[in-house]
Amino acid sequence: MVRDPTLSAPAVSVHDVARAAGVSQSAVSRAFTPGSSLSPDKRDRIIAIAAQMGYRPNPLARSLLRGKSNIIGVGVGDLANPFFVQTLQLLSQALESANLRLMLFPAHRSENGGSQGAEPSLQEVLHYRIDALVLLSVSLSSKLAEECRRAQVPIILYNRTTGQHDASCVVGDNTMGARTIAAHLLGGGHQRLAFLAGTPESSTNAQREAGFNAYLAEQGHPAPIREEGHFSFDASLAATRRLLVRPDRPDAIFCANDTMALAALTVARHEFGLDVGREISIAGYDDVPMASWPSFGLTSYSQPATRMVDETVRLIHALRTRAESHEEVQCPGTLMVRGSTRPVKFKGPTMEG
Amino acid sequence: MVRDPTLSAPAVSVHDVARAAGVSQSAVSRAFTPGSSLSPDKRDRIIAIAAQMGYRPNPLARSLLRGKSNIIGVGVGDLANPFFVQTLQLLSQALESANLRLMLFPAHRSENGGSQGAEPSLQEVLHYRIDALVLLSVSLSSKLAEECRRAQVPIILYNRTTGQHDASCVVGDNTMGARTIAAHLLGGGHQRLAFLAGTPESSTNAQREAGFNAYLAEQGHPAPIREEGHFSFDASLAATRRLLVRPDRPDAIFCANDTMALAALTVARHEFGLDVGREISIAGYDDVPMASWPSFGLTSYSQPATRMVDETVRLIHALRTRAESHEEVQCPGTLMVRGSTRPVKFKGPTMEG
DNA sequence: AATATAAATGAATGCATATTCAAATTGCCT
DNA sequence: AGGCAATTTGAATATGCATTCATTTATATT
User: Fold this and answer.
1) SS3 of B186, please?
2) Fewest Cβ atoms closer than 10 Å to its Cβ: which of A27, B70, B185, B349?
């Protein structure tokens, strides 16, 4: 006896089923392995007996032997952002439907580039022979990329991209989204634009900022005033205050995501007494559920979480089959115009400078 | 060769380390098993060589042999409630600190009592020899309880209780919280009270409702008007409309959680044009971060998520050691008074009927 | 009907490790 | 120095199962 007899569950094993069915252990194993050679009637009989005995193949043993575990590692950073919560919810359901397990681990800070200490638990998770690693709201450190490469674990970045390492990614169209927001704000006749940045190192912020700035420049507008809110509600409260006390107070703020936009809206409305949507326009990104609440009515560029999760799962399957492919999937969104921004004056895109 | 050679990672095993260190496989295993008999210098040498080779014991093989996996199963229902999101975040961090893995699975609807179909993935998760199952915002079905009992998996209900099955639970003090809210509303001089119920079968709702009703009865007040919002934002929008169109429109609503209270507040303010906190009072439960946003200022009874998660992890450890104990831990909260409720007229609890 | 081919089966092996058992080594005391 | 206990060690076994290999049985071909 290896296990503590007081703890050991009377788990029924292949051998028990084999004995009960009067067949070999191999037969029982084959009965649970689709595509293996076993006569249909015998398979049915084994399955029936197994069901009656409450037998299920032990996933641990199976994983050990097969070298893959049907487990997907999911690293998650900031759950304060509802977009990622929604994603996590959808992803957990999608993975269950695909008969995959989800192992969750917290990735404290989004570390980028350098060899900062990798998440301790990550070291461990990699040893579970996970089929893939999905990074949600976490940047990929080169150290982590290297570890995954060695462990042959494909990486999928969700809502992030990376140029340097071979990881797949699923993203929205940040450039288009940011340009669309810029066009919307300019169409509203705004003159002094501001950009409330997220974490500057993240590709997500970089693309949104670049797209926004590029469009403004194309239209002959000066670069926007800039503050950083690090994708955080609290940090954005402070950042917005800094924006609004300026002598050249902006008349429109594009925030790199909705969490930050909600903070900006809160400060503008309750601390500065501004009529958001008339005296100042505020736009966000993601279109989280709260954006449509009457209390906020936040104009935002949507990210299609359902579609993005579907693509993520599709990628997982693709990577499970043929190794060494790496894709970048882009899912377009839509501008959701609500009351937090002044309506556009002209139909169509602004034509003048 | 069992594994596909193109996929197989060059994972370093005990044998590799043993060979490199010139010791037996057993010695290497013992080096990684605290408390096992091995001379200190040899242990150090093995650890050093292992570290250099990048070796870590395979958790799958280890779990298979030991009969326990260091994995905690976490069933999660509704992530729309920020309280559970916060809990999940805290729990994932706490488990990582305790060197435990978190396996997440979605539990679609909170099923209670009857033998409705159990979550399909759950069947599977149980076979991972998980050390414990934590149910977040999910009721315990008798079927699930039975399955866990057979698999020797201890259950911890978070924010729920159950009378029938032997599961441990971590809860706030719902009765006290509801009574405190009731006292607060009566103290504000309200006459026509309403209760916006969550899922009626949940113990959480039952206790809050009972506590609220009991206090009102003790103070000689009639039973509150009642509607059901099923802990859902959308359902609560509709339920609040039903409440507010009544001829005997309530002048105070106690909602069984904050998500519902935010919906009620939204409807009262934006659809009925009511001045919340003056014309009508609305109180919630949980004290989620949004409750303190200036846009809402929701009076709420707090649930100490940090403390509750700590207790959950403590319970996990306790249950890992000695089987067959089952505890109920209660964590008291605090009344957070904000602008959504009329201030109390008198100091101290109301004295009159 | 006889052979060739395909399908079905069981014994044996291995996955990566922890633990038991017995042997070997060490330390200790007189 | 000698004997006994305590400690250290390696070989062997077990975990639960998938897969290979050789063998038996069923199906197709002429």
Assistant:
1) helix
2) B349
Q: Is the CB of A25 under 7 A from strand C?
A: yes
Dihedral angle over CA of A169, A171, A175, A178, nearest 10: -150
Which of B76, B67, B74 is CA-nearest to residue B128? B67
Give yes or no for a contact between B34 and B95, defined as CB atoms under 8 angstroms apart.
no
Q: Which pLDDT score is estimated for B117?
A: 44
Place of tokens 């409705």: B116
CA separation for the pair B100, A6 (Å, rounded): 22
* Annotation: CATH topology of A14-57: 434 Repressor (Amino-terminal Domain) (1.10.260)
Contact B240, B267 (CB under 8 A): yes
**What are the structure tokens assigned to A182, written together?**
């810029």
∠ CA B149-B157-B141 to the nearest 5 degrees?
55
* Cβ atoms within 10 Å, residue B35: 6
| Cα–Cα distance for residue pair B209/B220, rounded to 1 Å | 17
pLDDT greater than 50 at residue B115: no
Q: What average pLDDT does this structure show over B222-242?
A: 97
| Token representation of residue A293 | 């609440």
H or E segment to which residue A14 belongs? helix A14-21
Minimal CA–CA distance to A317: which of A325, A39, A292, B332? Answer: A325
Q: Are A30 and A38 in contact (CB under 8 A)?
A: yes
B225 phi and psi, to 5 degrees? Answer: -65, 150
Q: Give nucleotides in strand C with any atom < 7 A to a protein C-beta.
A: 7-12, 14-20
pTM reported for the whole predicted model: 0.91
Which residue spans of chain A are classified as CATH 3.40.50.2300?
71-172+305-331, 174-303
- B-chain CB neighbours of A295 within 8 Å are 266, 269-270, 295-296
pLDDT digits (tens, 9 = 90+) for B7-22: 445 689 999 999 999 9
pLDDT score of A117 more than 80: no
Q: Does residue B39 approach strand C to less than 7 Å at its CB?
A: no
Rounded to whole angstroms, how far apart are CA atoms B232 and B226? 16
Q: Which fold has domain B71-172+305-331?
A: Rossmann fold (3.40.50)
Cross-chain Cβ contact A102/B101 below 8 Å: no
User: pLDDT for B43-73, tens place per residue?
Assistant: 999 999 999 999 999 999 999 999 899 999 9
Q: How far is A60 from chain B (nearest CA, A)?
A: 6
Q: Enumerate residues near strand D (beta carbon within 7 A).
A: A 2-3, 11, 13-15, 25-26, 29-30, 32-33, 36, 55-58, 61-62, 64-66; B 1-2, 23-27, 30, 37-40, 42, 61, 64-65, 67
Asked whether the beta carbons of B197 and B220 are under 8 A apart, the reply is no
Specify the residue for token string 């096992």.
B36
Cα radius of gyration rounded to whole Å, chain A = 26
**What is residue A271's DSSP assignment?**
I
Q: Where in chain A is the domain with CATH 1.10.260.40?
A: 14-57
Closest CA to A130 of A63, A61, A33, A56: A63
pLDDT at A9: 52
Contact yes or no for B154/B168 (Cβ under 8 A): yes
Q: Is the pLDDT of residue B324 over 70?
A: no
Q: Looking at domain A174-303, which CATH architecture does it have?
A: 3-Layer(aba) Sandwich (3.40)
Burial tier of B137 (Cβ tally within 10 Å: 0-12, 13-18, 19+): buried
User: Nearest nucleotide to B65 by CA–C1' distance?
Assistant: D15
Strand partners, B89: none
- d(C-alpha B76, C-alpha B88), whole Å: 9
| Residues A94, A170 contacting (CB under 8 angstroms) | no
Examine the pLDDT at A256 and tell me if it is beyond 80: yes
CA distance A137 to A158: 7
**Closest to A250 in 3D by CA, of A275, A218, A282:** A282
d(C-alpha B148, C-alpha B154), whole Å: 7
